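Try it yourself: sequence plus ribavirin triphosphate, in.
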Amino acid sequence: MLDHTAAADTVMTDRLERVTAHEHPERSLVLIKPDGFRRGLTGEVVRRIEAKGYVLVAVTVTQAQPEQLAAHYAEHEGKPFYEPLVEFMSSGPLAAAVIEGHGCIAGFRALAGATDPTAALPGTIRGDLARDWGGAVQQNIVHGSDSPESAAREIGIWFPELG
Ligand code: RTP
Ligand code: MG
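Structure, out:
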């Protein structure tokens, strides 16, 4: 019993040290898109994030509002896949998460794999769990911020209380 408690304390201390050892650990915004949520893959994505060593700061399940998607995907407005993308992202609930850890922006993008699930390498989230369904937009399970500036902006859209 004592041994078990000591082991649990060690794990907790290690976790706290990882979170608090640096003053400004990097954060990224992750979305488990409606295809991933619908298919029950939220837990699998979170498992991979935690197995990599990143820490969950916040997680929520929500139906994306039009103004959130307009802000989130402003850079893609006018592109051929924009309207199908907004429709796809509105097609059901999604899970949004903020993750934390040094290098987690690039690190999560590496976990996610290439945008096109056919090209995404096995071992990545998109390579293992997504495929091309021949639609107007790629349904590729996850979104991850692509820069510190994007992360700050996107966290403000999905978690205004953390912005
Ligand atoms: P994300 O923003 O979702 O993390 O994905 P990404 O950076 O890898 O890709 P991005 O270029 O930002 O595109 C945003 C999302 O739009 C859909 N898409 N479909 N030609 C297509 O069918 C196409 N191009 C883009 C994908 O869902 C992509 O993740
Ligand atoms: Mg992107």
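One thing you can check immediately is this: Helices lie at 2-20, 34-38, 42-52, 66-72, 82-89, 104-112, 125-129, 148-158.
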